Amino acid sequence: MGGRNYDISETSGHQIPFIELGDDPRKPKTNYFASFCAIVASMSSILGGYDIGVMSGASIYIQQDFLISDVQVEILVGIVTLYAVIGAAAAGRTSDCFGRRSTMIFAAGFFFVGAILMGFAPNYAFLMSGRFFAGVGIGFGCLIAPVFIAEVSPTSSRGCLSTFPEIFANVGILLGYISNFAFSGFPTHLGWRFMLGIGIVPSVFLAAAVILVIPESPRWLIMQGRIGEAKQVLIRTSDSIEESLQRLADLKTVVGIPERCEDDIVQVPKQRSHGSSVWKELFLCPTPAIRHILITAVGVYFFAEATGMGAVVLYSPKIFEKAGILSSEHKLLATVGVGLVKTVFVLIATVLLDRVGRRPLILTSIGGQVISLIALGAGLTIIEKSDEQVTWAEGLCIAMVLFDVAFFSIGLGPMCYVSSEFFPLKLRAQGTSVGFITNSTMGAVVAMTFLSLSRAISICGAFFFYAGIATVGWVFVYVVFPETRGLDLEDVEGLFGNLMWKFSVKHRDIKN
Predict the structure, then answer these.
(1) pLDDT in tens, 452-492
(2) pLDDT digits (tens, 9 = 90+) for 59-102
(3) Where does the chain cross the membrane (predicted)?
(4) Which residue segment(s) compose the domain that 67 sits in?
């Protein structure tokens, strides 16, 4: 292949297979092992995505089967995001104590139990118990995937790989929509059970892949003083030998291990261990940089839900019904289109994040949402006030739903996962958990109030309301969100806490 071979055992003291590097250091070869690790970790996001997608259609049949009210439907659909808060809150500490891999296994186990309970639920109360286990599993999975990926990815492809959880979440949503459509012809009391119960499949795949294939995060290993293991993982997940050694040196510095220390296992300084000091540094005595990071990350997580994407995805059949699609099969088929659009555009974001940058994409994303939400509200207003069918307005509404999910998926959606790179190593897991808790709480509020909000101010007014929040979100991102493309993970913190960051970013040479 025209490259150079290095015997890694001479560098690390461990027997590792030979790695071939390309001749041009400016264009590192794709690290397929790091990509594979990101794919496996991102499978945990399928769990949450599948639940969102499948409940949009399953809730229709559950309501018919159990004869429950709209309020009960809202609670059933939205409560899982509140339960996810429990999982996310526990996952931050669990991942620091037991490791990133163990946390992924916990996610799969909880969702597996939840899927079984929901599939065999004889009544509404039993179904809600299944929602609890599924929600906790979703919280574990959605928290740990971006943390693990940010820590295992090489600098050159960190932005791309960090979007994988969003890709898989959208794949999960699409699979949920397809499941709705596939089982819609079954008897009412069976169809929704198959829709929910089949969720055991991705949870089994996730647990098996994590146990059999992927390694532990090198940064977590360093935090435990396990230098030898961390070195092996870094060599396998870096673009070059030089990068792996530099990442190892940086991590030793961050954790407080002497750079010359080459022991396989060392004692990590006590002040660097996880615990209450993390929360103190996050909330009670944050530095200006940490405060800026926390505000930025939590803000991104907040606006990702507050702009109403959860309502669009969860209640898309009802939105399409308002737009003139009356057939149940046609409504479910239209939701498959929503899933396809979300998946395609997050794939586009994956390509652009390390080329165009984070900041331009997220500003374009929220700006596009503002326009599409306003247009959707206007179209629904015209349909609502017209005494006869307005075909062009119906087409506009359907197009704007697709535009909204497209703009969301190209920036704001994947940026929730990418924002885990903002936090320094010691604060990353629990800092990300704070963001995800915010996201889950807002997701629950949106999911559990959309039908009531639509009755109170009309469905048109609801989307105008979300457009107003999106406008505030655009201003927020413009003011506080820096560009992190091309920076080593340990260098990202340096961008925050400086009021002049906008001007310095324009003049610094971003590494490619």
Answers:
(1) 898 899 999 999 999 999 999 999 999 999 888 877 766 77
(2) 889 999 999 888 898 889 888 888 988 888 888 788 888 999 99
(3) 32-53, 73-92, 104-126, 132-152, 164-186, 192-214, 293-312, 332-353, 360-383, 389-413, 434-457, 463-481
(4) 32-219+274-507
Burial class, 382, CB count within 10 angstroms (exposed 0-12 / middle 13-18 / buried 19+): middle
26 found inside a domain: no
Percent of the chain that is helix, strand, coil (3-state, to 5) = 80, 0, 20
CATH assignment of the domain containing 118: 1.20.1250.20
Sole residue written with tokens 């503002």: 370
User: CA–CA separation, 106 vs 87, rounded Å?
Assistant: 10
User: Residue 509 — very low, low, confident or very high, per pLDDT cuts 50/70/90?
Assistant: very low
Cα 188 to Cα 367: distance, rounded to the nearest angstrom: 41
State the Cα–Cα distance between residues 159 and 334, nearest whole angstrom.
Answer: 31
Q: Are 466 and 373 in contact (CB under 8 A)?
A: yes
Q: Is residue 459 assigned to a domain? A: yes
- Per-residue tokens: 502: 């906008």
* Residue 224 maps to a domain: no
Provide the pLDDT for residue 265: 65
- What is the C-alpha separation between 224 and 61, in angstroms, rounded? 49
For the chain, how many structural domains are there in total?
A: 1
- Please tell me whether the overall predicted TM-score, pTM, comes out greater than 0.90 for this model: no
* Per-residue pLDDT at 22 exceeds 70: no
Pairwise CA distance, residues 171 & 202, whole Å: 11
Do 327 and 465 contact (CB within 8 A), yes or no? no
Q: Is residue 380 in some structural domain?
A: yes
**DSSP letter at 28?**
P
Query: Among positive and negative, which fits the CA dihedral 500, 505, 509, 512?
Result: positive
Q: Report pLDDT digits (tens) over 282-297.
A: 777 888 888 898 999 9
Q: Return the CA Rg of the chain.
A: 23
User: For residue 19, which phi and psi values (nearest 5 degrees)?
Assistant: -120, 130
